[in-house]
Design brief:
Blueprint: H1 6-13, H2 16-22, H3 29-37, H4 40-63, E1 72-73, E2 84-89, E3 112-117, E4 121-129, H5 131-136, H6 141-178, E5 179-181, E6 187-189, E7 194-199, H7 204-217, E8 248-253, H8 262-268, H9 273-278, E9 280-283, E10 289-293, E11 296-308, E12 312-326, E13 331-344, E14 350-356
Parallel strand pairs: 1-12, 7-14, 8-9
Antiparallel strand pairs: 2-3, 4-13, 5-6, 8-11, 10-11, 11-14, 12-13
């Protein structure tokens, strides 16, 4: 889309023949408004175009540039919004060369694993405006852009906040399951992902090393970091995973940025600070968990996650605008239905980092 100006937005909202008749370049915005609002047919066409075509194009482009864009996809064939089947096939094992040829016709089936994920977000967002707001929009360029931006920013901000909350809740639940508290107030081992333990007397350098060591370990083939392997008793039941350095993502609370020297972390991965920042997503933090010990009540808090960029999946199952006219007050409401599958892959590397309010044992 061209630069967003009132004329460009109006032009994109209406069909070519109507745009030609309006003579947009020769007329003032006020005159264009009188022509559009003087015809019920033109008014309806303009409102439908600016809401469901121009504004939604702008909203969609913004959504796919937000911090979670790297995890997003609209590639789903689940027209009935059923479960997504996640399949993983282990690397073929190395076998000794058999010069006798006795295993030549022996069939070796690939070792696979499967997990299922259900639709878990059904959001409906809406923004309304009446005849007064619509007529006022044509008073000046600033008024028109304020009208347009109100539509875009209201839906975009609402949708982004809902998606942010969903992702944060998904990560928080994963960490919460690692640190469930029993009825007696003590911690219960209930791990969902590998965890790196940090203590309150550890230095920032020690914390940085913990992130570096965990992420470097993920670059080697291992059964340690896939969530699917938690609780599996034998190696034969586990999957082998690894992560390229370029696919590592750090999800950290914003407060940690003042504790750690991100430039040191970047150097540890032979990355520039700019490139490392692109692999880092900052959140506003996670709630601490209180538990009982022999020496009293203690806290443990999530310091973030190190993970493969393919762990977090955000798949758009439905992304549909709908325009509704309320005949009682002659107002318009633009609805945005956004349904998603949001889940953590069972077959990619992830580790949480937890701070204990106690000295290192």
């Amino acid at each position: 889309m061209a630069t967003l100006t009132p004329i460009n937005i109006i032009s994109a909202s209406l069909d070519a023949a109507t745009v030609a008749n309006l003579n947009l370049q020769a007329n003032t915005l006020a005159d264009i408004g009188k022509t559009i609002l003087g015809s019920e047919t033109l008014t309806d066409a303009f409102i439908k175009g600016i809401c469901t075509k121009v504004a939604m194009t702008n909203i969609t482009s913004k959504i796919y540039k937000n911090p979670f864009a790297r995890f997003k996809s609209n590639d789903t064939t689940k027209g009935n919004f059923g479960q997504i089947e996640e399949i993983y096939v282990n690397p073929a094992p190395d076998r000794l060369t058999n010069t006798s040829g006795s295993d030549l016709l022996k069939q070796v089936n690939p070792k696979g694993a499967v997990a299922y994920h259900a639709l878990n977000r059904k959001s409906t967002l809406k923004v309304s405006f009446g005849e007064f707001e619509l007529r006022n929009a044509f008073n000046s360029d600033n008024a028109f852009m304020a009208f347009y931006n109100n539509i875009v920013n209201s839906l975009y901000s609402g949708d982004s906040i809902a998606e942010y909350s969903l992702v944060k809740r998904l990560l928080a639940l994963t960490w919460d399951k690692n640190y469930e508290v029993t009825t007696s107030g003590t911690l219960k081992a209930s791990s969902l992902c590998n965890d790196v333990k940090i203590y309150n007397d550890d230095t920032p350098e020690t914390i940085a090393k913990a992130f570096v060591n965990a992420s470097r370990s993920m670059t080697f083939p291992s059964t340690k970091y896939a969530m699917y392997n938690i609780g599996k008793e034998t190696d034969s039941d586990k999957v082998t995973t690894w992560t390229d350095t370029s696919d590592l993502v750090f999800i950290l609370p914003n407060s940690l940025q003042t504790e750690l020297d991100f430039e040191i972390l970047a150097k540890a991965f032979n990355l520039s600070f700019v490139d490392f920042s692109k692999q880092t997503i900052l959140l506003d933090g996670f709630d601490a968990k209180k538990y009982q010990t022999s020496s009293g009540t203690k806290d443990c808090a999530c310091l973030g996650f190190v993970m493969d960029r393919n762990v977090l999946k955000l798949i758009d199952a439905k992304y549909k605008p709908m325009l509704f006219t309320n005949p009682e007050n002659d107002s318009k409401t633009l609805f945005l239905h956004h349904w998603q599958y949001a889940y953590l892959s069972q077959f990619c590397n992830i580790a949480s980092v937890t701070l204990y309010d106690t000295a290192r044992p």
